[in-house]
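Teaching assistant here, posting this on the class forum so everyone can see the example we discussed in section. The complex has two components, and the goal was to see what a joint structure prediction looks like when all of them are supplied at once.
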Amino acid sequence: MSQKRREPPRAVRNAAVITLRGPVTAAYRRSQGLWYCTALQFDIVGVGKTRDEAFGEMRDLFSDYVKEVLADSGPVRFFNPSEAQEWNVKKQETYSVTVVMARPEEQPSGRASLSDVGQLRPYRDAIQCIDLVPAGA
Amino acid sequence: MGRPFSFREFKRVMARFGVTVKQGSKSTHYKLSKSIRGERRVYTIAVHHNEVLDVYIRKTRRVFELPPENGVSDAAFFSK
């Protein structure tokens, strides 16, 4: 777990940070000089010259992905698991999803979870940042 | 498969299959979406040096049900 946690922008340092229940598993592989980091529950992949670069790209793509899912009010498929062989990769890390809410008074009651991410929809305009942090951190 | 695929070609292919491509939070990131059987599918990719890597082609085809197993041959997918 060598990745550094991304610092939230100064303007949101006093905002509420929600940690969603449920893991995101990042699997790493290297091929032809490039690192690939895949979020296995969503099959979202980041590519880079280094492992950290690949993780950073996956993290940004995952953030865009969740925001896009929340932007729609109709049914959206959220989980999109990777193919079986990708789950067998040995280099894996487990992350939790954090959501920074710009207005602390606007957030779901109770503990939000990845499996019910739709409960964040009413608050999507208040979301400043979606990030992945090492599980248990 | 395996050949460099320009982002311009990729967008044209996605449009042919009804997949919408929008800019993401970074200039190199893109959000793809399409409704399939009443449910919206979303996927996000990165574009490196104006080329779409094979890994993104493969995963995009899977998300939007465009691989050979769904009846879309490589020839049909990549045809101009």
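For the discussion questions: Chain B has three helices and five strands. The two ends of chain B are 15 Å apart (CA to CA). Think about how each of these relates to the inputs above.
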